[in-house]
């Protein structure tokens, strides 16, 4: 029989017999005390002064609602309310630390946005559970707050900020837009949307004859006025900014393009704001969007199609590595340059991996490429698996020269995909495989558009499979008369097939230990690229491609060092349960941070050096935390160990707590013993300052 006693500040304690379990229920006065501390912290915060008043107003409304219903609140719901409020307090304590303000402002703005979103959601859930209707659904505060925090000009997008995303020569941008550069910059002009006024054309010193009204189209959602001037080498996109959202979109594009500065993406040369008008100078789009190019060119050889697929898959793999998505990936967002290379463009579609702000309604044009689960629940966050599904549809479009489901309207496609959720792959609606498609290509494509998101491959896997297919075409793709071989012939070819039957992990390890690095690398690569890859082999291949120590490169002919590809192998090894890969990847991040800091210190920029090092420390601990949350004991130990070394008390405590949970709850004696061993090692270190 349970007995309940009313205690300090209105809290209640329940004693439950016969196990004598004590359940603590916070009182209303305690909730008020936490809210008061939160209000004080909001008043002292400096990160985003526009958003803070809305946060304070919301918290005071929560307090008033609890006060009005203090007599009817069920004690069972107060612990969840207290937990949500404590999370608010904990966040704001970090939010107001003087030493953390610059770091939070410049580097972690998107994480802060997501954290604020989670805090509001958790507190709203706890209030609704207690029948306290301070719901965010009927007010605009959260939207207002998030809209303010998403203004990128408060982060690192200011041209006057020495940590700006793009180093821009303003004079060059002005000269380019005003057609003063040589090489006939504005030989032609294409106007999209509402044409510029004659006054504005005169102001830009652009001849009215250059605008071709035959190319006028409706605005594509990027703003009420957009003009693209195309020349032989560059394109100038002119945008009249009317709202803060318009302004932030251009800065976001500038930021993302600076992070994706490789030949796989449309190059962005600079951006300039002057008099409310934005000028963005980009690479000339050459032969235009891929969708239009496919319609007008029907005789593209398979070698070219596979090369395109590899480039686009590699571009998306880079995006995922840098925590960006392009949802949904459609052919309108791909350009074909003058050398027939495809590149990802339209950076305004990119977003952070955990961003959940985009609804299906915003993706009307991309429904044909949209994954089924997103049509069923538009609030689901975009993920890398959603990008992979879209890429599968793009692979089909490259083979067919048609958009997916071209015989159906957008509404019909949406309902078809929505009703297909839950079906098996064989029963789900998908475009038919085009006759003559190589079996290997079709196999990768079908894996990409699988129904269950978790069963779709990573983009790194897709790249490797397509590269194998490209090697097959290079070796056996065409007969002597120039005709393509049958797809069944290509199925038999494996460019990584072993030259002798003794390719085993034992042999590869022995070659490595004997310092026969060339032979060891080749054997590790064969084992890593198998249909069922080996975790240890992926780990070694990743190390060979990344490690800068001389012994790993000695004896290997040619340059095998490729850190980006090496990281993809390490990620595969991590997914297969290799804890050494997790530790190695985190150490590489720390090594990179140390080198960047050393270079910045040499230039006398100590502030930037400390900021960069702090960011990389956070990423390093994040790698260990991800592995620990998946149940990896080594990562739990490293989370605590590196947390102590880097001065992160919370990481140290979390790592120890996870190991203790394994000791208490694990059924496997070996796991318990290993966790105890790791915990003993941690206790032997001098980490006592974290326990005070």
Write the topology of this structure.
Layout: E1 2-6, E2 12-16, E3 21-25, H1 28-44, H2 52-68, H3 78-95, H4 101-107, H5 109-129, H6 141-149, H7 170-177, E4 189-193, H8 198-203, E5 211-212, E6 225-230, E7 234-240, H9 244-259, E8 268-274, E9 277-283, H10 290-296, H11 302-321, E10 324-325, E11 334-336, E12 342-344, E13 351-352, H12 372-376, H13 384-400, H14 410-419, H15 439-448, H16 459-476, H17 487-492, H18 505-513, H19 517-528, H20 535-546, H21 550-553, H22 563-575, H23 579-602, H24 606-629, H25 633-645, H26 649-665, H27 669-684
Parallel strand pairs: 4-5
Antiparallel strand pairs: 1-2, 2-3, 4-6, 6-7, 7-9, 8-9, 10-13, 11-12
Helix pairs in contact: 1-2, 1-3, 2-6, 3-5, 11-13, 11-16, 13-15, 15-16, 18-19, 19-20, 20-22, 22-23, 23-24, 23-25, 24-25, 25-26, 25-27, 26-27
Query: What is the domain total for the residues?
Result: 4
Q: What's the rounded overall pLDDT mean? A: 66
Class inferred from helices and paired strands = alpha+beta
CATH class category name of the largest domain = Mainly Alpha
Which architecture of the largest domain per CATH?
Answer: Orthogonal Bundle
- The helix content is 40-55%
Give the percentage of residues in beta strands: 5-15%
Biggest β-sheet, characterized?
6 strands, mixed
Count of runs of 4 or more consecutive helical residues = 27
Radius of gyration: 29 Å
CATH topology of the largest domain: Transferase(Phosphotransferase), domain 1
The counted number of beta strands is 13
Main sheet: strand order: 5-4-6-7-9-8
* Amino-to-carboxy terminus distance: 38 Å
**What general form does the structure show?**
globular
Mind telling me the CATH superfamily name of the largest domain? Answer: Transferase(Phosphotransferase) domain 1
Low-confidence stretches: 1-24, 99-108, 135-140, 148-233, 354-363, 478-501, 548-559
Keywords: ATP-binding, Kinase, Nucleotide-binding, Transferase
GO molecular function: ATP binding; protein serine/threonine kinase activity
Domain Protein kinase: 214-473
Protein name: 1727_t:CDS:1
């Amino acid at each position: 029989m349970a007995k309940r006693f009313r205690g300090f500040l209105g809290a209640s304690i329940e004693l439950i017999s016969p196990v004598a379990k004590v359940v603590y229920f916070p009182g209303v006065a305690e909730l008020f005390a936490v809210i008061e501390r939160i209000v004080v912290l909001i008043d002292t915060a400096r990160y985003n002064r526009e958003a803070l008043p809305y946060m304070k107003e919301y918290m005071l409304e929560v307090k008033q609602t609890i006060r009005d219903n203090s007599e009817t609140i069920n004690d069972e719901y107060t612990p969840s309310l207290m937990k949500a409020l404590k999370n608010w307090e904990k966040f704001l304590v970090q939010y107001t630390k003087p030493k953390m303000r610059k770091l939070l402002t410049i580097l972690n703005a998107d994480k802060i946005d997501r954290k604020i979103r989670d805090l509001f959601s958790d507190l709203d859930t706890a209030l609704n559970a207690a029948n306290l209707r301070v719901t965010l659904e009927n007010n605009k505060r959260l939207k207002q707050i998030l809209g303010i925090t998403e203004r990128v000009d408060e982060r690192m997008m200011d041209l006057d900020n020495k940590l700006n995303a793009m180093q821009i020569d303003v004079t060059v941008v002005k000269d380019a837009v005003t057609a003063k550069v040589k090489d006939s910059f504005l030989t032609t002009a294409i106007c999209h949307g509402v044409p510029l006024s004659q006054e504005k054309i005169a102001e830009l010193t652009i001849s009215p004859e250059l605008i071709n009204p035959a190319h006028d189209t409706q605005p594509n959602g990027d703003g009420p006025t957009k003009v693209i001037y195309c020349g032989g080498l560059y394109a100038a996109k002119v945008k009249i900014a009317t709202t803060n959202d318009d302004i932030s979109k251009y800065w976001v594009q500038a930021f993302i393009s600076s992070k994706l500065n490789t030949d796989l993406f449309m190059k962005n040369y600079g951006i300039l704001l002057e008099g409310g008008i934005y000028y963005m100078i980009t690479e000339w789009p050459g032969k235009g969007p891929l969708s239009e190019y496919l319609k007008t060119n029907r005789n593209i050889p398979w070698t070219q199609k596979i090369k395109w697929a590899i480039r686009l898959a590699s571009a998306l793999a880079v995006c995922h590595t840098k925590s960006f998505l392009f949802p949904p990936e459609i052919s309108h967002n791909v350009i074909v340059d003058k050398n027939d290379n495809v590149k990802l463009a339209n950076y305004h579609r990119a977003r952070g991996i955990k961003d959940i702000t985009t609804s299906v309604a915003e993706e009307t044009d991309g429904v044909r490429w949209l994954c089924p689960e997103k049509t069923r629940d538009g609030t689901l966050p975009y993920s890398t698996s959603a990008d992979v599904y879209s890429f599968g549809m793009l692979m089909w479009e490259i083979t067919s020269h048609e958009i997916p489901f071209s015989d159906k309207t957008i509404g019909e496609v949406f309902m078809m995909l929505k009703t297909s959720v839950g079906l098996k792959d064989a029963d789900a609606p998908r475009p038919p495989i085009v006759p003559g498609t190589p079996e290997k290509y079709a196999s990768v494509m079908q894996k990409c558009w699988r129904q269950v998101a978790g069963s779709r491959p990573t983009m790194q896997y897709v790249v490797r499979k397509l590269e194998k297919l490209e090697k097959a075409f290079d070796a056996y793709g065409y007969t002597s008369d120039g005709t393509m071989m049958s797809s069944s012939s290509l199925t038999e070819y494996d460019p990584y097939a072993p030259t002798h039957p003794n390719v085993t992990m034992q042999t590869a390890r022995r070659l490595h230990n004997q310092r026969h690095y060339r032979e060891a690398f080749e054997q590790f690569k064969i084992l890593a690229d198998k249909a069922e890859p080996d975790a240890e082999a992926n780990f070694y291949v990743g190390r060979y491609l990344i490690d800068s120590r001389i012994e790993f490169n000695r004896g290997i002919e040619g340059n095998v060092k490729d850190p980006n590809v090496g990281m993809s192998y390490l990620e595969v090894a991590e997914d297969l349960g290799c804890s050494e890969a997790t530790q190695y990847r985190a150490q590489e991040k720390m090594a990179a941070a140390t080198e960047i800091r050393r270079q910045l210190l040499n230039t006398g920029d100590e502030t930037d050096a400390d900021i960069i090092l702090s960011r990389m420390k956070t990423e390093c601990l994040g790698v260990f935390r991800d592995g620990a949350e998946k149940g990896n004991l080594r990562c739990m130990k490293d989370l605590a160990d590196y947390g102590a070394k880097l001065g992160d008390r919370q990481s140290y405590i979390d790592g120890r707590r996870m190991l203790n949970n394994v000791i208490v709850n694990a059924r496997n004696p070996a796991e318990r013993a290993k966790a105890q061993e790791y915990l003993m090692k941690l206790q032997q270190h001098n980490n006592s300052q974290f326990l005070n």
